[in-house]
Write a sequence for this structure.
């Protein structure tokens, strides 16, 4: 195959009508990853995940609090109350609190009365029922960490899709560029042949009808060239949509730019991907990983809904002490305390049971979605691999077709020069040769796009 390919390269690139300003696929890919808005948008995804985790951790932040109130009427101080302190929430439903309270006034509720110097207090509250194993704060933190991992997978998928779409456009440009070049060369040859036939007809060496045949070929190739030039123009426009500066300003493809040369493309035969390898690839696929993370997030919700079936039972214990010489720890005694118990339980639990059933159904829905995604990704990878194998076989076929067509054309042209053939047959052989070259360029582009599709289905383009 390499022997055939080297021959094709010589015939395809025998004359160059464009300035040699090569714009390789690797350079294009690097530029897309560096400056494209979607690439920069993808880079924001992990930052969003980190911000969500930071936000959820805020549920466990220590808090300073102050509660002050007073009432004065007709020069009578009804009451003046101050309660200030520090609250520290922790894991497993524990919350520590320490503060200072001072209340006074003529009509102060006796239960709020404090010594002249106020009262220091410190203690703990504990949830023994609902909220002991998991509460809203812990559930949000668990889900935010899952979301953080999900954003990393989402970034991979965004970059994978961007590189696939941009790469597909690059190889369309590649096909349009070299197809246009082939048609330009063929039009030049047809024009030269027309002029030669005209001269021969004027000298009486060729029949006049041959000039009509030669002129039809020029017109036909002009028509083909116009179509390919339109395709080339559109492919450049499409490709330019992926070109941006670092300042997020759109770029246009330079008129003198041309894709990488055909001889720089590696024609390697890819090994078949076994079923075990497909299963491993699918298992680590970002899309499937996101489905798994979604299930884990739903399971956190389910666990929290299940926790809400428990009754609320909160215990509070605070040691109180009157400060002596501004020291709240002198003469402290556990006998001086404030104790509280809070109990609450719905009689029917209909809301809670309904929420739990919905949470279970969402988990089941996510699990079924996971199984379906797994099968879908597996089939896409296998289909993409078949497309690559087919493109490889097509390359082998058309590399030989180009060689054979060139030999037939050369032989027919030799016979024509010796007067043993007609211009019609020469043109027919040349058209077959041109069509073979065009088809080869198309298959070569489709082969690169098939490789892109395979890597896209495996999510490894990024």
């Amino acid at each position: 195959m390499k022997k055939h390919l080297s021959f094709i390269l010589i015939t395809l690139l025998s004359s160059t009508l464009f300035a040699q300003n090569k714009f390789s696929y690797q350079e294009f890919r690097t530029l897309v990853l560096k400056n494209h808005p979607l690439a920069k948008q993808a880079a924001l995804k992990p930052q969003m995940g980190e911000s969500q985790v930071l936000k959820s951790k805020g549920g466990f932040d220590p808090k300073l609090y102050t509660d002050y109130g007073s009432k004065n009427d007709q020069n009578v101080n009804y009451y003046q109350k101050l309660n200030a302190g520090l609250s520290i929430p922790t894991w497993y439903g524990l919350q520590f609190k320490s503060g200072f309270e001072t209340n006074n006034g003529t009509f102060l509720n006796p239960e709020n009365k404090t010594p002249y110097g106020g009262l220091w207090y410190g203690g703990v509250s504990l949830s023994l029922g609902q909220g002991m194993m998991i509460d809203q704060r812990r559930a949000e933190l668990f889900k935010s960490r899952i979301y953080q991992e999900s954003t990393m997978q989402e970034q991979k998928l965004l970059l994978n899709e961007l590189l696939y779409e941009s790469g597909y456009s690059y190889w369309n440009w590649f096909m349009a560029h070299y197809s246009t070049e082939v048609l330009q060369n063929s039009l030049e040859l047809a024009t030269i042949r027309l002029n030669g036939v005209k001269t021969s007809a004027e000298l009486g060496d060729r029949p006049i009808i041959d000039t009509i045949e030669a002129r039809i070929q020029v017109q036909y190739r002009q028509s083909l060239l116009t179509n390919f030039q339109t395709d080339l123009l559109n492919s450049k426009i499409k490709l330019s949509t992926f070109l941006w500066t670092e300042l997020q300003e759109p770029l246009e493809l330079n008129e003198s730019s041309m894709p990488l040369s055909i001889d720089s493309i590696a024609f390697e035969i890819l090994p078949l991907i076994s079923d075990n390898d497909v299963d491993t690839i699918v298992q680590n696929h970002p899309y499937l990983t996101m489905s798994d993370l979604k299930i884990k997030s739903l399971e956190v919700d389910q666990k929290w809904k299940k926790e809400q079936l428990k009754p609320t039972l909160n215990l509070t214990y605070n040691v109180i002490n009157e400060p002596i010489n501004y020291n709240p720890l002198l003469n402290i005694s556990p006998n001086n305390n404030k104790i509280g118990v809070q109990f609450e339980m719905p009689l029917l639990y209909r809301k809670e049971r309904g929420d739990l059933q919905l949470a279970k159904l969402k988990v089941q829905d996510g699990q079924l979605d996971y199984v379906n995604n797994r099968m879908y990704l597996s089939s896409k990878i296998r289909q993409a691999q078949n497309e690559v194998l087919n493109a490889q076989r097509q390359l082998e076929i058309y590399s030989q077709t180009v060689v054979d067509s060139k030999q037939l054309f050369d032989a027919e042209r030799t016979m024509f020069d010796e007067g043993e053939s007609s211009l019609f047959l020469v043109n027919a052989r040349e058209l077959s040769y041109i069509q073979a070259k065009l088809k080869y360029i198309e298959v070569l582009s489709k082969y690169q796009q098939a490789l892109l599709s395979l890597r896209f289905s495996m999510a490894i383009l990024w």
Summary: Residues 1-20 have pLDDT under 50 and may be disordered.
